[in-house]
Amino acid sequence: MIGRLKGILVHKQPPWLMIDVGGVGYELEAPMSTFYDLPEIGREVVLFTHHAVKEDSVALYGFMREIERRLFRDVQKVTGIGAKIALAILSGASVDDFARLVQTGDVVALTRIPGIGKKTAERIVVELRDRAADFTGGPASIVGKGVPNDPVAEASVALQQLGYKPAEITRMLKEGAAGDSAEDIIRKALKSMLRNG
After folding, report:
1. Residue 91's CB: how many other CB atoms inside 10 A?
2. Which of 43, 110, 112, 121 has its CA 20 to 30 A from that of 131?
3. Would you put residue 42 in left (φ > 0), alpha (ψ -120 to 50) or beta?
4. In this structure, is the dihedral angle defined by the CA atoms of residues 177, 178, 179 and 185, taken in order, positive or negative?
5. In a domain, 68, yes or no
6. By the 8 A CB rule, do 98 and 89 touch?
7. Are residues 128 and 174 in the same domain?
8. Could you report the per-residue pLDDT of 77-112, keeping only the tens digit for each?
9. Count of domains in the chain?
10. CA distances from 21 to 26, 95, 179 (A)
């Protein structure tokens, strides 16, 4: 099992990133909550990891915080939820926001996360409500990491990879302001989607 990696960030393009650890490049899939806090390319980074081995595939997932990895693992215990939806949950809501939605039984808000229908949202509430209080790690700190060449285009690609449709993305991107980084645009877009639907 690979539980933690410390190395140099050599590539980041949501949802994928690569870390060079002693000359070996580890490719990981990560939620947007982790991308918000990644350093610049060429800097050192430490990530908690989840190593998933299936009959036909091996995957490595990376998280900036242990609480995110725990939530990623716990939501997959809910019937019908796999790694893709678990990543979408962490990309669409902070750990604290997700815990609040589960505790209050806000099925409507949960269904705004790509891949979660009404029945799945209801199962999440029923199966995780008792444990939702454990999903607390303080609000995630969102830090801009500089302005890329075209932050709107980068945000659009990231939202497509999270499963949103083009029409939804166009509506969501209206939340961004001039000068915002891609991370800021994505964060505002996801918050508006949870808030307004």
Report:
1. 26
2. 112
3. left
4. positive
5. no
6. yes
7. no
8. 888 888 988 998 888 888 888 888 888 888 888 888
9. 3
10. 7, 28, 34
Compute the radius of gyration of the chain from its Cα atoms. Answer: 16
DSSP string, the chain: ---EEEEEEEEEETTEEEEEETTEEEEEE--HHHHTT---TTSEEEEEEEEEE-SS-EEEEEESSHHHHHHHHHHTTSTT--HHHHHHHHHHS-HHHHHHHHHHT-HHHHTTSTT--HHHHHHHHHHHGGGGGG--S-PPPP------S-HHHHHHHHHHHTT--HHHHHHHGGG--TT--HHHHHHHHHHHHHHH-
Query: Cα 10–34–54 angle (5° rounding)?
Result: 85
Q: Are 28 and 68 in contact (CB under 8 A)?
A: no
Question: Closest Cα partner for 31 from 73, 113, 111, 86?
Answer: 86
- For residue 4, what are the β-bridge partners? 48
Q: How confident is the model at residue 178 (pLDDT cuts 50, 70, 90)?
A: low
Residue 10, domain extent: 4-63
